[in-house]
Amino acid sequence: MNEPVFSVKDLNVSYGGNLALKDVSLDIQPREITAIIGPSGCGKSTFIRCLNRMNDLVPGAQVEGQVMYHGEDIYGPQVDPVTVRRRIGMVFQRPNPFPKSIYDNVAFGPRINGFKGDLGELVERSLRRAALWDEVKNKMRKSALALSGGQQQRLCIARAIAVEPDVILMDEPASALDPIATVRIEDLMQELKQEYSIVIVTHNMQQAARVSDKTAFLYTEVDEESMSRWGILVEYGPTGGIFTKPVDKRTEDYVSGRFG
User: Fold this and answer.
1) pTM
2) Which of the residues 140, 161, 169, 216 could staple to 103 if both were Cys, CB 3.0 to 4.6 A apart?
3) Helix, strand and coil in the chain, % to nearest 5
4) Which CATH number is correct for 6-255, 3.40.50.300, 3.20.20.30, 1.10.4160.10, 3.30.450.20?
């Protein structure tokens, strides 16, 4: 068995003192696609933002527990969050290209990280890996904002790849895209997992079933007295099992569409 890329233990996250995620523990394996599913508000985005310390940027956010990345706690006192985010890239729900040229979007990260090699070659390689090169190779100096939504999202993936990360986090990367662009992103994920570990949050269960190797199901727990709500991990395992033979009744109800 491979060493996990992430080993999460007893993770608790709160915002302004309100618990958002409670006691989540799981291991994420390298070179796999791990899907995080669950109803709205169960802490899916909160969870993956813990994997590259994006929650540090949210005022009042507090993270407790351990997030071990290749055996090192990324919340340890000596760890630089900027270095963490360089190793663990992020692609967001809505494509967010910079208002610059296609070339400069991809070159931006390597430039600020002091890349000394052939930048043009790195940009081309990143765009090829993101299955976008053939569509943009003759308009590299044009604005990235002129691309279609699906192209913009693949550009954001190329931008994430350009700094040569180890892990790519994707927070509902296809939810703003049409079905054809969604298929392209899903196909691309299958290619990228040959080189990267991928964690994807998705509200689309068919997508989770199609693309992922493992699936984690988060669910919202409610305190009847205070009506406070927080996310918990109900079940985690190989995707086929989660969708066809879930162990927990709540998982079965969710994947069969009875709630959520």
Assistant:
1) 0.93
2) 140
3) 35, 30, 35
4) 3.40.50.300
